[in-house]
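User: tokens in, sequence out, please.
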């Protein structure tokens, strides 16, 4: 323990002053145990009697409380003393990267965060968590902890997990990948960050969907890319609007476009691949929510159609299992594989080995497939409940864009412009209902009011109650409009 002595007076007095400073400064908060006297004496090079004398004075002044059989603990005398804190000093950004961080990212205002004080919330991006998964994952982790070597894992990812990912992708997503082309990463966000560093120089152009996932957009902007937004409709990215001057990279979510939920049609997939091949540019495929479709068999990933190896394919286990897992994967074109492995090594030396081993075992023993089947069934029930409740309770007040996939719906407020939509969100929050605008995901400002309704984290009963409150807010706002 670091306790500087000021050199003034007896040693026990110096120690008393140093310990008081640690308590009053917050380094030793109330309730924390003081070090044993023998140990502290050894650490500071003092006699034990000196430490005992200091502790006795602290007890007498009310800074220390002794508990029989447990030791001595911090007890602040009188009224609690506030920790001394200094306001952060704002200094000029020290690099071009820092300047872009400040320009493009506001960590205090991230879209989609749960509104404070809400009783019901249609928060999106929060996946369904199966209670059975908790115990199954605990068993997998326990097994992995006993059998994972304690040394650094390979930067590319454990071979057993990379092989399991290939089997999963072949079965579920129609992607034929070799384990040597797979890199295990910390989710899609690290995947796009590594992709930017591997294939882009600052100032190069990147096509993004409009609308698109804000975190991907910010990662590219912070890297220094110049973004070229291309509109999305019901068939996905409008490939006929791709620029004449080819970009270096094209970022798409073809299996379940975020946030619209559109599925890219087969003709547009082929047109996109042809464009990338002709113009020698790369495609970053974020296979967002590709596992969950409710109207038909899952569509093959874009990467599965790519004969020219222009697609950098990224997927994550964070949404289908739980976000805190922070494990995903890249399937890299063979010519870029070594660059991606090196970039991953520079970033963090490799993803956690125990979690990789546990996930590989979970995939191999069928636990993951069972989880997907249970989750898809539950999500379909919740989706159907939300659709039914909105159609029954909100009626003509809304237009629903049903994506037939994922864990959210897009709902438009009929007759409301964007400003009125924001006012409605504020009004609903005052009634205890969390609603979330689609506007932050558009490059070009929206004219109409749109909402994202997440249903993954709500039970059927909670969905019904929240939908009733939503309909009530719609009626109350309509009444106020009529009164005006």
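Assistant: Sequence out:
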């Amino acid at each position: 323990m670091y306790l500087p002595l000021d050199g003034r007076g007896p040693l026990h007095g110096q120690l008393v002053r140093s310990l008081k400073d640690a308590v009053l400064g917050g380094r030793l908060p109330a309730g924390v145990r003081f070090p044993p006297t023998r140990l502290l004496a050894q650490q500071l090079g003092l006699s034990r009697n000196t430490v005992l004398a200091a502790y006795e004075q602290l007890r007498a002044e009310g800074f220390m409380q002794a508990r029989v059989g447990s030791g001595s603990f911090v007890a602040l005398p009188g009224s609690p003393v506030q920790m001394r804190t200094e306001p952060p000093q704002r200094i000029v950004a020290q690099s071009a990267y820092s300047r872009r961080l400040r320009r493009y990212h506001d960590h205090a205002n991230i879209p989609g965060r749960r509104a404070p004080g809400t009783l019901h919330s249609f928060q999106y991006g929060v996946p369904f968590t199966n209670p059975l998964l908790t115990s199954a994952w605990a068993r997998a982790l326990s097994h992995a902890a006993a059998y994972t070597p304690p040394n650094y894992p390979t930067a590319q990812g454990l071979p057993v997990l990379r092989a399991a990912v290939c089997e999963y992708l072949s079965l579920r997503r129609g992607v034929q990948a070799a384990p040597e082309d797979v890199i295990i990463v910390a989710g899609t966000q690290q995947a796009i960050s590594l992709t930017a560093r591997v294939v882009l120089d600052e100032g190069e152009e990147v096509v993004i969907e409009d609308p698109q996932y804000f975190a991907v957009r910010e990662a590219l902007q912070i890297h220094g890319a110049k973004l070229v937004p291309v509109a999305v409709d019901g068939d996905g990215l409008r490939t006929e609007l791709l620029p004449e001057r080819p970009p270096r990279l094209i970022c798409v979510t073809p299996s379940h476009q975020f946030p619209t939920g559109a599925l890219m049609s087969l003709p547009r997939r082929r047109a996109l691949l042809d464009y990338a091949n002709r113009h020698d540019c790369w495609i970053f495929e974020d296979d967002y929510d590709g596992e969950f479709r409710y109207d038909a068999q899952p569509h093959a990933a874009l990467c599965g159609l790519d004969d020219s190896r222009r697609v950098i394919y990224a997927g994550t286990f964070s949404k289908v299992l739980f976000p805190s897992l922070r494990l995903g994967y890249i399937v890299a074109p063979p010519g870029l594989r070594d660059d991606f492995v090196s970039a991953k090594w520079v970033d963090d030396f490799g993803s956690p080995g125990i979690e990789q081993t546990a996930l590989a075992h979970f995939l191999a023993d069928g636990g993951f497939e069972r989880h997907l089947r249970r989750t898809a069934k539950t999500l379909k029930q919740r989706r159907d409940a939300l659709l039914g409740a909105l159609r029954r309770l909100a009626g003509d007040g809304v237009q629903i864009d049903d994506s037939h996939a994922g864990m959210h719906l897009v709902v438009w407020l009929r007759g409301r412009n964007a400003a009125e939509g924001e006012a409605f969100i504020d009004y609903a929050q005052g009634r205890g209902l969390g609603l979330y605008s689609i506007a932050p995901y558009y490059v070009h400002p929206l004219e109409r009011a749109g909402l994202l309704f997440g249903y993954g984290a709500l039970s059927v009963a909670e969905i019904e109650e929240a939908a009733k409150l939503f309909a009530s807010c719609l009626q109350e706002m309509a009444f106020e409009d009529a009164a005006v």
